[in-house]
Amino acid sequence: MEQNSTVTVRQPLILGKKSYHQISEDISRPVEGKANRLFKIVFTISALLALWGVGCFAYTIGTGIGVWGLNKTVGWAWDITNFVWWVGIGHAGTLISAILLLFRQRWRMSINRSAEAMTIFAVICAALFPVMHMGRVWVAYWVLPLPNQFGSLWVNFNSPLLWDVFAISTYFTVSLVFWYTGLIPDFATIRDRQLKPRMRKIYNILSFGWSGSAKQWSRFEEVSLVLAGLSTPLVLSVHTIVSMDFATSVIPGWHTTIFPPYFVAGAIFSGFAMVLTLLIIMRKVLGLEDYITISHIENMNKVIILTGSIVGVAYLTELFVSWYSGVEYEQYAFLNRATGPYWWSYWSMMTCNVITPQLFWFKKIRKSLIATFIISIFVNIGMWFERFVIIVTSLHRDYLPSSWTMFHPTFIDIGIFIGTIGIFFTLFLIFARTFPVIALSELKTILKATSENPKQPHH
Amino acid sequence: MSTTKKYWKGIEELQETPEFLKLQQNEFAEELPVDKFLGDENLIDTSTNRRDFLKFLGFSVTAASLAACETPVRKAIPYLNKPEEITPGVANYYASTHWDGQDFSSVLVKTREGRPIKVDGNELCMITKGGSHARVQASVLSLYDSARIAGPMKGGAEITWEAADKEIIEKLIASNSSGKSIRVLTSSVISPSIKSAFGEFALAYPNTKVTTYDSISFKAMADANLASFGKAVIPTYSFEKADYIVGINCDFLANWLSPIEHARQYAQNRKLSAEKKNMSKHVQIESALSVTGSNADKRIALKPSQLGSAIVQLYNKVTGSSLQSKSLDNKDAAIGEIAKELKAQMGKALVVCGSNDVEVQKIVIALNQYLGAYNNTINIDVVDNTRQGNEADVMSLIEEMNSGSVGALIIHGCNPVYSLPSGEKFKAALSKVGYSISFSDRADETASACSIITPDHHYLEAWTDSNPRTGHYTLGQPTIQPIFKTRQALESLLKWAGNTIDAHDYIAKIWESTVYPSTSGLTAFSEFWRKSLHDGIVTIANTDQSAIQDALAPAIDLGSSAASISATAAKASGVELVIYSKTGLGDGSQANNPWLQELPDPVSKVTWDNYVMMNLDEMKEKGFNTILGQEQKSDTVEVSLGGHSVTLPVLGQPGLPKGVIAISLGYGRTAAGKTANGVGANAAGFIQFKDGYFNYNVSGVTVSESKGKYSIAATQTHHTMMGRQIVKETTLSEYKKDAKAGNEDILYATNLKNIGKDGKASAKELNLWDSFENKNHFWNMSIDLNSCIGCGACVISCNSENNVPVVGKDEVRRSREMHWMRIDRYYSSDMNEEKAEAEGIGAIDKFLKMEVPSSDEVEVVFQPVMCQHCNHAPCETVCPVLATTHSLEGINQMTYNRCIGTRYCANNCPYKVRRFNWFRYNENAEFDFNMYEDLGKMVLNPDVTVRSRGVMEKCSMCVQRIQEGKLKSKKNSERPKDGSIKTACQQACPTNAITFGDFNDESSEVRKAWDNERKYQLLEEVGTQPSVFYLTKVRNKNATEA
Q1: pLDDT mean across residues, chain B
Q2: What is this model's ipTM?
Q3: DSSP letters of A62-85?
Q4: How far apart are CA B903 and CA B896, in angstroms?
Q5: The pTM is what?
């Protein structure tokens, strides 16, 4: 009776009276069917943008970092802004797959696969920047603590940039393994449904010869749990370390102890916004409305209110602390953010990140697809500006006014950013056409518990 | 009729045997043994099969192409026979003399493997005492200027010296015999040998007359001295003896007469220590804010037309006379105040005036006489020979040329088509001269219009001598083989006069007969000559002292002078224009020098351009953009006067009165070379020739509305300190009360019980990091902000020493200049913390107003900033690959090879002194400056790495010099003596503002500076603990002015 009562209180997570077979049908359809015209158009655009970005990267490597808008005072701008933004976006996937798994949140099952895919692709985009922003990319491997023949050269374990190297590479590896582990049974399902021998072979390889034996399932569950346990600290650690790039410095506006929690909340905030942006389109295009339901979206909107409010409080705390510190440089740094030459970026950030998510207090807005989509875009923009504000407005006017200057992006700066968006969408579209975008096997486990199917009598 | 000879190849061909005729038809005379080869029965048994053949083929092709892929080898060829004095890797130093018609300096030239790479002041020289000027420092790069012509040129084509000499002598003889005059137009000649050569030339060609012309004239001063003392001379000054200095429209620290010397003297009497608690007071009365005005204790901004009246008023108020003078509106009281203070400093006062108005100069002389300046702060017996020009002669020369009576004109050391206000007229007149010869090193504006160019050596390639002032002689010797087929003007002149002696012998001869006899004569001439060459200078005590102090010159009618000044002032109408020269380019003769073009102007911090300086309020009224920024373009205006007009961007300049604009000379070259051509516009056309003098302050100028937009490239676009304790400053009276005035310890409340009193501690005591132990040496640097005048000599010296690349205007605009050291210039603001609090102004408003510099009574401070070599360096902790680390001697060192270019260190540097190589600046056609050319690269210091793109760089505290100094001492088994190692910036500084040394040496100067109460570290509160520290600036202000 207990289970029944929860079902009646909460909206079912799978709509439209599905059978196990129907679920397999629905989710395998995009993989097995042919791409429609819309897909081809969108894919072409994404691929072209990605190529454009690659071109801009190549031009940068060939000519020098000078093709960006940086200068003697502002040594990082769009590069690291984009890096932090992309890493932040990745966080939703990990949170959904790891923490929500540990908390036994069943609504995660229809979104975790694509959220994790998004994590992987976002981290790929993110990782491009710390590599690309190096003046000498060709020696980027020097940041790795490799035994070498350069003498007794070693890396600097005091440097937060080095911590980044470890944080990002660990994050990427664990996320990839976690994601792939979840995919194994689903690849097997697709394999079993495939009629073409070649595709069958490919999916067989991808599924590592999964047979679905009880032992395999038991191992699978164990590995998932272990990986979830491994990923959970990463949700907190990765962005904490990224924030330390700034927090451990001496620059007013960077030198702040609030950064780690503030960055983590911001990351989850932006990650969920990006998941929403993608899923609202995907559920429509791939016809997955029954699996990614309004209540899923509402749940995510609630996470956005929570993290958005944390971020808002963090902004205000920063302002308060800068005033309360009595440090003239801190005070000016924050005053300059709000009223200086980059006031527009600060107020864009404030509007997008603090005000707009508060609209989700209204149930109507929370449940409205269009409103959610628009707000999610706002949050994405706002979170980009947050990083821009932190990086550029802190650097451009720091201690000595003689060095104060402005940052103006060049076409290459813009091209690279747009290029990474292209890379991200290209990868995501490939994913949507070749991978099961919803965790099939996991979803099937909750079909009985939370769907519109008539309740089976309790055994 | 031409005959085609036929040569036969063999006897068969001659006899035309049938056999030969038959074989001739075949391609190969002998049958190829193909059949034999193919018919070889053993062929099938050879071990080389088809596959092997292909393998061989493949190998050969690969080997051949691999061989072609080999990286080009750059050969360093060792000396076959090592010259005795040259040891590769060890520098040689030669004394020489820099004189280009503008700046005199006895110099010491550093050469490496036979090429001069650095020019510094000669410490033995009594005039400069080792100091130097940005233009002198940069002159070594002008040696390697690819715009120099490679040999004598006629009509744009190179000819040989023999042909040139033949033609010139023919023309000169023809001209002389036709009765037409031969004229020599020269810049001031201070060389006894060239003077003598002119004499020999005139003997050979009796119709010769020499006209002297300075691009910036001092004629009025010479004439005023003539009227007052009967000597048309320029006196020399002793600023160090003056306790009260009034400078009127006179940039004596950076651009006037003998700036290196003046700067040194000036700073000497402004240095403070426990023993010397007094300093001179300096008042500057001027229109455009100059380097000198920026250093003044009090500055009064007046319109140029009011300056004459200000001097008359000052004279009246000091002497109690009542010469005719006009009121200066609200500035009369200030002049009265100065007069009162001046009178109290009889015998220790000095008034200097840069005006080229003879009446003004007469009053200044009378005032100085009254104040007892002569024989105290002014020496009329030791005269300055560097300004002998007479513009009236030049103007009459133009008329003479136009009349067609000039048969030949020789132009030496000047560029009148460019620098004369009537340059175009001169050019037109030049075409009416029978034959014109230029000694210019390039086909410049004048030379290209001459019949022939016979290029002179660069001074570093030549034997030179000079007599810059009474009793001072200098010598210069070649430091490199002539790079091009040039010939010293001295030799050319002598050759044309029929004397084929070489320059060295000639100079030695002149010296033997002139300089040598005035010495004690204890040594033989050869010994004297050897020593003079080695030292570069000879000083002969001046025994001829006249007592002019007592005799006030009654012959001068000051009343008429004052009346004339009033009349001139009354005539001024409309917008007034000040034509001045900038520290970087001066008169523009070295305009093709990229170091100088990229040197930020000390006051405006603008590079690569001249501009119209205008009052900020006036700009706002006119709707011009007042803000400098990367993407904020300035408005351009057309400034016109008479027939001359230029279009230049407008720059807001605090301290410039309304209704006045200022434009600098030296820009707008059209034929100086690729670096200078088309940069800025030439303002020489505005100079007015009136009553025999060039007038550099003109009125009635029209300034158009905005004509368009133009990007100005400045290295500093924010001008105020925003209420921060960056340059610490106090007044002399406060300093006397408490030497720590303005530098009070800042204590921070802590919860530590074992520290300070009440748990309050200074930033130094609060530490997160372990300290470095600098057991052996600990290199520190002290910069006395009271001595620094902001001139920028150190910046050029640093560029030269450390191979700092030139990046060009557009990159400077993008805030990407590469200078390792910069001189920050801050203007005072009318808003401050106290005022905001008193008036209840909110934070936002307060900071916005703080950004705006004071308009009229602006005060200026300079602060040289280079890497501070922090002992707790923020950059060192953040580098992921340990490319920047701390040395055992306290230096923050940069390992270029290890740098991967994350720029994290630059971001985390509170001083923003790190410079990133955004592009490859060497060998890159996009950066077509000296590092792109093979010739220009010869100036590079082989001891300093040329950085590649993608790496960070910054001040190394001249670590190569430290290393050299340490090795030298080690060879002598001793510790480096204090002062034996000098950084490049320190060595160049004319005011000795920079002290460098070993902190661990307790007797070192730098250690003493550390114990000075005025010592502070920049941004001490960040906890970086820099090894570079500053001494507070002290202004000598009255209690009422403070």
Answers
A1: 88
A2: 0.91
A3: HH-GGGSS--SS---SHHHHHHHH
A4: 13
A5: 0.89
